[in-house]
Every structure is written in C-alpha cells, then in structure tokens.
Amino acid sequence: MHIPDSAEIREKRIELGLTQSEIAEKSGLSQSMIARIESGTVDPRVSTIKKIVDVLNHEEISIITAGDMMHCPVISVLADETLAKTVSIMENFGISQIPVIENGVAIGCISESAIINAMDEGRIQKIQSHIVEDFMEDGFPTIPKSTSMDTIIHLLHNHHAILVSEKGKVVGVITKHDLIGMITK
User: Can you give the residue ranges of the CBS domain (predicted)?
Assistant: First the structure.
C-alpha cells in the first residue's frame, strides 16, 4: 500500500478542484489539520491519512462520467435482422447480448440466453427462419453521457450493459467488463 506524502495529497486535492475545507468536511477532520498535513508540519497517523485518501479516491471516481467510460460505435442489430446473422455478429465480436436499435433508439436486446431458452422450449428449429424481434427481450438501461460513476456501478449490478445516449440517440455502451477494466489501469 502506497502512503502518499504531503505534496501528493495537495497535488491530488488541487487536481480534483477541491478546497482544504471540502476535504476536511468530507473526512471529518479540521481544515487546519488538512493545511498542516499538506504543509508537512505535522506527521499524521495512518488512520488520518486513510480518511483523506478515501475522500480523494471517492471524489476521483465521482468525476468520471458515462461519456468518459463509454465505447463506441455500439454494435447493434435491427428488429428485423435474421437470427442467423445476429448470432454471427455475436460470435465475431465475442459478445453474449446485443442491443436492438431502430433510428438511434434502443428498443430491446437479444441475448444468447434468450436464443438458448427458445431452443430449449422448441420454439427454434431452424435459425434462418427467425428474426430478432421473435426473441427480443427488454433493453438495457439508457443513461445520458453526464451520468456519474456511482450510478453506473449501481446499474451494472443488475444489468450486463448500459447504453449511453445524447439528444435521444444511442452513442455508446458501457459493460461490466469496461467497469472491471478501470481498476486494472
């Protein structure tokens, strides 16, 4: 575990656009204690440094938005696309679900699970004779580009992906894989 020195704490606070008073309020410490730590005139306990680092880490995550995380273009299909072509797209891109988008607006999704369930129930004999609409499920949540990381994390607890929109049109996608990838950077 890296314990930041006074200069690193000050640099990170300034980088995040926070005042000493804001750090103090959020950490439960006094503003004068934050000032003394940053100036190096006091040797704080590890527990005190941890409070400050926790606030800085939380604030850093809070400034990341959906627009920062999303990737594009969004791989999608139309509702009238054949199931055979859709499965081929999923295989080519190594994905297990794909949004169904019409005129830039998400109307549902199709997943491997939905296809397998339909096969199990005997609703699919020949994949070539079906279209996506026959097995389409409810779509992924759609959020604006300005949505915070906290909201994204919450939504990804219950969904495999989130679509990002701008002016009513889907412009990006965020997956659980993208979120996990952030901690490896």
Answer: 69-127, 136-185
What does pTM read for this prediction? 0.67
Q: Tell me: the pLDDT tens digits for 56-106?
A: 888 877 678 898 889 999 999 999 999 999 999 999 999 999 999 999 999
Parts of the chain with a pLDDT under 70: 1, 62, 127-128, 181-185
Class of CATH domain 67-182: alpha beta
What is the distance between the alpha carbons of residues 142 and 109, in angstroms, rounded to a whole number? 12
pLDDT of residue 63: 74
Distance CA 139, CA 165 (A): 13
Q: Is the peptide bond before 144 cis (omega within 30 degrees of 0)?
A: no
Do the beta carbons of residue 178 and residue 74 sit within 8 Å?
no
- As a whole number of angstroms, the distance between CA 88 and CA 85 comes to 5
| Rounded Cα–Cα distance for residues 139 and 60 (Å) | 30
- Looking at residue 89, its pLDDT comes to 95
106 exposed, middle or buried (CB, 10 Å; 0-12, 13-18, 19+)? buried
User: Between the CA of residue 42 and those of 2, 19, 33, 51, what are the distances in Å?
Assistant: 19, 19, 8, 16
Domain edges within the chain:
6-63, 67-182
Options 3.40.50.80, 3.40.50.720, 1.20.1050.10, 1.10.260.40; which CATH number does 6-63 get?
Answer: 1.10.260.40
